[in-house]
Amino acid sequence: MHASLFLLPFIALSSALPSLAPRQGQEDKSQLLLNEISQLGVAVQELDADVKMFDGSPFTALPQGYNIIRSAMKVDDLIKQSTKTAKESSPFTMTESRNVLIALAGQIDPIMDTLNTLKMKVCRETGVVMCSN
Question: Do the beta carbons of residue 101 and residue 16 sit within 8 Å?
Answer without folding.
Answer: yes
